[in-house]
Amino acid sequence: MKDTTMTQASLYIVMPDELSQADVRNNLPDIYAVSGFSDLDTMFSLTEENMPQLIICHQSLFEDADSDRLSNLTQRCSESRILIMGPPRPMTIQIAALKQGARGYFNDELPLTKLHDALQLILHGEVWVERHVISGLIEELTHTPTITHQQKQALDSLSPKEVEVAKLVSHGATNKMIAREMDITERTVKAHLTTIFQKMSLPDRLSLAIFFRDLR
Fold first, then answer.
1. Which residues contact 188 (CB under 8 A, 6 or more apart)?
2. Which of the four CATH numbers 3.40.50.2300, 1.10.287.3510, 3.20.20.80, 3.40.630.40 does domain 4-129 have?
């Protein structure tokens, strides 16, 4: 099995405080090709053509700006995965960041050594937020009519193990947590998820979580 915990990636760090930038750099392994910027305008003026795989932005960059600034950033950097980093914020703030296209919110009270875990997680298509934030986001989105009649029929084709995996996803569990709960490997969890996505015609983990949340 390929080890996805050390995937190389290009990374931009956008933070007004240079000391904070340095702290982030010093706590990341050297698999990242890192460039640092003090603000978004500087980043765009110097790197308009080649956006990185990952961008860390400090939450303060969005506090005094118009409410669309983060969504504009995610649209402009559509090929990059953006992680917001900052002090503890209410669930509503973190949900708003996800809805505008960010892939997670990293609480800077966590050890910076955990930042690598967060970056690798979003690099491989997942999100980095507290479990209650995922539940809150699902709660907000369940009013959206995303479930088709065909998808409901496809439920019958899921195995008991696949149903169990899907239900755990709907509660915000990570692959590691699911593997521990079901006493299986993370590789098996990923295989189950791939099969579920195909059977249910769902594009990603969040869509799956919303689907099963609606069935409760």
1. 179
2. 3.40.50.2300
